[in-house]
Amino acid sequence: MHPTIQKYKEAWEQRNVKLLKDIFTPDAIYQYRPWEAASGLLEIEKYWAEKIIERQTSVSFHVERERHFGNELWLEWNAVVGLKDRAAPVKLTGTMIIELAEDGRIKRLVEYYFY
């Protein structure tokens, strides 16, 4: 697993916003829905705090397939996520296309998932 994705996994599973500065560039774009994106590290941290940390109780993230194309990573992944408003965890299946900066941090992440 690419080191940046390993850090992303740790941040999500630990639900730790403080780790995001080591994963995303200050001007990163995190497109979490086709019509919605967080622009810049501060917006990404806010999105995680409000939508992930506040709503999720547990996460188990697994990368099924990972491909490298120059400075891009393409991932197929799944996760089992506990949610505060649901009795049973949900299973998410998704893809990520990630553009990496020269320092290895994420410059742009486009994510699609289903449950």
Describe this structure in a few short sentences:
By secondary structure, the protein is α+β, with helices and mostly antiparallel strands.
Shape: globular
Order of helices and strands: HEEHEEEE
CATH architecture: Roll
CATH class: Alpha Beta
Total separate domains? 1
Largest sheet: 6 strands, mixed
* Unreliable stretches covering 5 or more consecutive residues: none
Classify the fold: give the CATH topology.
Nuclear Transport Factor 2, Chain: A
State the end-to-end CA separation.
Answer: 24 Å
Strand content: over 45%
Summing up helix and strand content along with how strands pair, one would put the structural category as alpha+beta
Helix count from the secondary structure assignment: 2
Instruction: Name the helicity range.
Output: 10-25%
Mean pLDDT: 94
- Identify the strand order in the major beta sheet: 2-1-6-5-4-3
The total strand number stands at 6
Rg to the nearest angstrom? 13 Å
Question: Describe it for me?
Answer:
- By secondary structure, the protein is of the alpha+beta class.
- It has one domain: Nuclear Transport Factor 2, Chain: A (Roll).
- The chain is built from 2 helices and 6 strands; from the N terminus they run αββαββββ.
- It has a 6-stranded mixed sheet with strand order 2-1-6-5-4-3, covered by helices on one side.
- The longest helix is centred in the middle third of the chain and has 13 residues.
- It is globular and about 40 Å long.
